[in-house]
Fold this sequence. Notes:
Layout: H1 2-5, H2 10-17, H3 22-27, H4 33-52, H5 61-67
Amino acid sequence: MAMLKNVIPISYIRDFLGHSSVETTSIYSHADSEMIAEAIKAIEHETTTATTQEKQWKGHEEYFLRLCGLA
């Protein structure tokens, strides 16, 4: 959790721990109240910023659908 809190990608943590899959590593990861509070604060900041700026992806939704394997 210390590595995850220090914004180390979970794929690096997987390699460090010698797990064969990120799913195995994610079993041991969990968000504490501090991490949840930071995530909420980031989302609140994003939503206030997004309302004042034009979204650059508008009109290109098909790219997101393809990236997600939905198109």
